[in-house]
Design brief:
CATH architecture of the largest domain: 3-Layer(aba) Sandwich
Largest sheet: 8 strands, mixed
CATH class of the largest domain: Alpha Beta
Number of domains: 2
Shape: globular
Low-confidence stretches: 1-43, 53-63
Strand content: 5-15%
Order of helices and strands: EEEEEEEHHEHHHEHEHHHHHHHHHHEEH
Mean pLDDT: 89
Structural class: alpha/beta
Helix content: 25-40%
CATH superfamily of the largest domain: Alpha/Beta hydrolase fold, catalytic domain
């Protein structure tokens, strides 16, 4: 998903730039425009990451799985799969991690579950993406986790600084190269471990879910099927309404509490009114316990905007952050009225910390990497209109101007649908696609751009009314609601059917 990506809006002198933030951290981007001064461009582009817990500031123990189960490898990956110039043959070490614990062994034709890494290092996925380990034993599956190029330890060129230095070295950083990397590694792994007839199921969530679905379409000879969780493959061009994402956020809050929705909706104008008073920013600093003084009301608004979006996107049980925010807003009574209610929502969302908003934060590799991806091909036209947020229409020209200033190259907003398709998907995809599960939770704002209807007998939409972003591929817990348990069982049953059919074909082939 937050995960935030690339979308721009105007606010005063500020341009807001959202982004598919890496699987863990929302991208807060400060952009200085106008002749002398600066303007803060925030993540109004919701993050595209399977895991939002770090952004939600909930502590969680990582690496609870036995590390001895995982073995790290590096593949000598080709820099450019689509060109034959001498420099294209340059290689770099790409990291992949294998769990052999449940595998049926060489020559067993036991399946391979391959997790396709997205916009972050692969490390945390070993623990968070529980669908792999939770189901491996019943399939006797080999588990492989492949890191996306330019993230983590899979860095082309001699250093991260050089790889991310300019548009020339960044030019090899795109989804087509990434899925070609995955194909090369999977073919290598099958050969290396004598698993030539092992069927491969690729799995991914959010941006990684998009990659999984696209991989199955582009490399059907490598992957038997794909589980694409919360993959908004239809949020390009004009396929999905631009205000779709934020209309779902609004629906989530309003469906829970009309008074909470009304309070949030009117808070924007009240924040601006207070900000323009003498010492107004200081009043806001005190009310919201900011970590450093606000430079403008837009910093507070951008924080709240991202908080509400993330709460809706990652509204996972049992904590349900939307409920937590609204309970605090509705349950607060103060002489400061709306502002105190909104502040109470922030405190409830974040929990007990020393300060809120404008915390010191170092830019992550995901911030840097996704900024490039959203300035090249991942141009998702997300804006807001008639909902609980101020009107913030998507402005493609602002995106083009920003990316030109930053990289010296403009984005290609129509390339994703040119290369992967998306228009008239129900008419087109049934003619050549197969064996993809598009899973969604309808509380997830990104579900508005997901595939929500079966396209054919093997292009299947599996969704839950109360589900949130990538919830189905996260680790199972005893407290999971029954509807989530059923969703996962349905997905496992579909995958079993694909593999059974494959084994029947394989038996005939070997006769």
């Amino acid at each position: 998903m937050t995960k935030h990506e690339t979308f721009f809006i105007n606010s005063q002198s500020a341009m807001r730039f959202p982004m598919f933030s890496s699987p863990w951290i929302p991208l807060l981007l400060f952009v200085f425009s106008t002749s002398v001064v600066t303007s803060l461009q925030h993540n109004r582009f919701p993050r595209l990451s399977p895991v939002g817990e770090k952004f939600l500031h909930h502590s969680r123990v990582l690496n609870s799985l036995p590390l001895d189960d995982f073995k790290t490898y590096y593949y000598n990956q080709t820099l450019d799969h689509f060109n034959y110039r001498p420099e294209s043959y340059t290689t770099f070490p790409q990291r992949y991690i294998i769990n052999f614990k449940y595998w049926g062994g060489p020559n067993s034709s036991a399946p391979i579950f391959a997790y396709l890494g997205a916009e972050a290092p692969i490390d945390d996925d070993l623990d968070f993406i529980g669908f792999m380990t939770d189901n491996a034993i019943q399939f006797n599956a080999l588990l492989i986790y492949i890191e996306h190029r330019y993230y983590g330890k899979s860095i082309p060129f001699r250093s991260r600084d050089e790889a991310l230095g300019n548009a020339s070295t960044l030019g090899y950083f795109n989804s087509a190269q990434a899925i070609a990397d995955y194909a090369a590694i999977l073919i290598h792994v099958k050969k290396e471990f004598h698993a030539n007839y092992s069927p491969v199921i690729v799995i991914g969530g959010s941006y990684g879910g998009m990659l999984a679905s696209w991989f199955r379409l582009k490399y059907p000879h490598v992957a038997l099927g794909a589980l694409a969780s919360s993959a908004p493959i239809l949020y390009f061009d004009d396929i999905t309404p631009q205000d779709g994402y934020y209309s779902v956020v609004t629906k989530d809050f309003r469906g829970l509490s009309e008074t909470c929705y009304e309070t949030i909706k009117k808070s924007w104008s009240e924040i601006e009114t207070v900000a323009y008073q003498p010492n107004g920013l200081s009043i806001l600093d005190q009310e919201f316990k900011t970590c450093r003084p606000l430079r403008g009301y837009f910093e507070l608004e951008d924080y709240l905007w991202s908080m509400y979006a993330s709460a809706a996107q990652y509204n996972h049980p049992p904590k349900y952050p939307v409920t937590r925010i609204c309970d605090a807003i509705d349950g607060t009574y103060s002489v400061n009225g709306t502002l105190s209610k909104i502040a109470a929502g922030v405190f409830a969302f974040r929990g007990s910390v020393s300060c809120y908003i404008n915390e010191p934060r170092n830019e992550t590799e995901t911030d840097v990497g996704w900024r490039w991806q959203s300035c090249s091909e991942m141009v998702m036209p997300i804006g807001s209109d008639d909902d609980m947020f101020p009107p913030s229409p998507f402005d493609l020209q602002s995106v083009i101007n920003y990316c030109n200033r930053l990289y010296g190259v403009p984005p290609r907003p129509h390339w994703a649908t040119t290369y992967y398709g998306g228009h008239d998907i129900r008419l087109v995809l049934q003619r050549f696609g197969s064996n993809i599960i598009f899973s969604n939770g309808l509380k997830d704002p990104y579900s508005i751009a997901g595939v929500l209807h079966n396209i054919s007998d093997s292009l299947l939409a599996v969704y839950t009314t109360n589900g949130s972003h990538c919830l189905d591929i996260l680790k199972a817990h005893e407290t999971d609601p029954e509807w989530l348990v059923r969703q996962r069982k349905t997905e496992v049953g579909i995958i079993k059917g694909w593999i059974s059919e494959y084994y029947a074909d394989l038996k005939k082939y070997k006769q």
